[in-house]
Design brief:
single chain, alpha/beta, TIM Barrel, 2 domains, twelve-stranded mixed β-sheet, two-stranded antiparallel sheet, 14 helices, 14 strands
Length: 381
């Protein structure tokens, strides 16, 4: 089937009952999880699943799991509310601002750290674009703006254009990043919308550099259709960089992670960040301990070329973006890649090893208890 036909016939799926490959008894077992945390996908992405394999990594990425009901984490594991200057605008690091422009996505990853946005936007999504643009104009230190959500490419191109038109006249903004998993979830959104490529071209003619921050989590997501979408974005002049968490049962195997790095480099996508899975509600069964994750990351890097191992292994903590840089028999070595307090940026520190640590707060030598006031711990009852 040609891509034009696939794009026209793609079916969006809101309930597990619509999935033919999932047996009725499994749908019944997942009913409570589906009621607690929203499910959303499309038949293109679901077609990547090997349904006879209960442990298929693509299935694990998109299909609810009873493990999500384990009480662990909270709705705002990185304390985003702390850095929200107005609904939909976050300013944590001096040079970078985040605009949460969408509460929709091409699918909902089970590891998502913003589940709260899909359950209830709670006033977090950008509503007042002129006020956001005024804030950006008034802060000349902001050179980078990240459009996120949700997924900005879940918006119609016309709506995305309105957002970019508010940003393009601001001279000190030089880079506009668009965080999107759409190349994996629904590549036809890109290949069958020439207006999107035209918008990227126009933005760059205005002196802005457009980066698409892709979210490929497993090599099997890099299909022929996805590669066409990548090529389309690159022809328009966008640069691409990829970020993914290390996720149990999906890419927590050095060979799998190395293959992801390798295929990304072949496609012209720079591996950018490997994240420690955030302690968001519902994520415990998908999380890998920090020290195990570091060892997986290093083993994967040892298998690929320099261009394929440009990623950093980081943790997006409330205090900053922390890079895990080494281990020995007694200690874990970390560094503030970026810090909420600018004077802390670049700080190197050491924690005593704890093989059961999933987050910085789990280390006795560096404890910063954090319970956001706005969001309940453990998710909805």
């Amino acid at each position: 089937m040609k891509n034009e036909q696939k794009a026209k016939n793609i079916r969006f799926i809101h309930t597990l009952d619509q999935i033919e490959g999932l047996p009725p008894e499994q749908k019944k077992d997942l009913a409570q999880t589906e009621q607690t945390y929203r499910f959303y996908a499309n038949d293109y992405y679901l077609s990547l699943i090997h349904w006879n394999d209960r442990h298929d990594p693509i299935r694990r990425l998109i299909i609810p799991d009873p493990g999500e009901l384990e009480r662990w984490g909270d709705f705002d594991p990185s304390g985003e509310v702390t850095f929200t200057v107005m609904p939909g605008v976050e300013h944590k690091y001096p040079s970078t601002a985040l605009l949460l422009v969408s509460n929709a996505c091409g699918g909902i990853c089970r590891y998502c750290f913003r589940k709260r946005v899909f359950i209830s936007s709670q006033g977090e999504i950008l509503k007042d674009l002129p006020a956001a643009a005024a804030y950006l104009r008034d802060h000349a230190e902001i050179t980078n703006v990240l459009l996120t959500g949700g997924d900005p490419l879940a918006l119609a191109t016309g709506k995305l254009e309105l957002i970019l038109d508010a940003l393009l006249p601001i001279e000190h903004i030089r880079i506009i990043r668009i965080g999107s998993k759409m190349p994996a979830f629904n590549p036809f959104r890109i290949t069958e919308d020439p207006a999107l490529a035209e918008l990227i071209v126009r933005a760059q003619k205005c002196g802005k550099k457009i980066y698409i921050m892709t979210h490929f989590d497993h090599p099997r997501e890099l299909t022929g259709e996805a590669m066409e979408a990548i090529a389309c974005l690159r022809r328009a002049g966008a640069d691409l960089a990829n970020q993914t968490p290390i996720i149990a049962g999906i890419n927590d195997d050095p060979a799998v992670l190395a293959e992801l790095f390798r295929q990304l480099s072949f496609a012209g996508i720079a591996p950018y960040y490997i994240f420690q899975c955030r302690p968001a509600s519902g994520n415990k069964h998908l999380a890998v301990p920090i020290e195990t994750g570091y060892e997986i990351f290093e083993q994967a890097c040892s298998q690929v070329s320099g261009l394929a191992k440009r990623a950093r292994f980081v943790m997006s903590h409330i205090t900053g973006k922390i890079e895990i840089v080494g281990l020995d028999a007694a200690c874990v070595y970390m560094k503030y890649h970026r810090a909420a307090e600018e004077e802390t940026s670049g700080r190197f520190f050491v924690c005593g090893r704890n093989p059961d640590a999933y987050w910085l707060d789990d280390y006795e030598t560096f404890s910063t208890p954090h319970t956001p006031a706005k969001y309940p711990a453990y998710g909805p009852e």
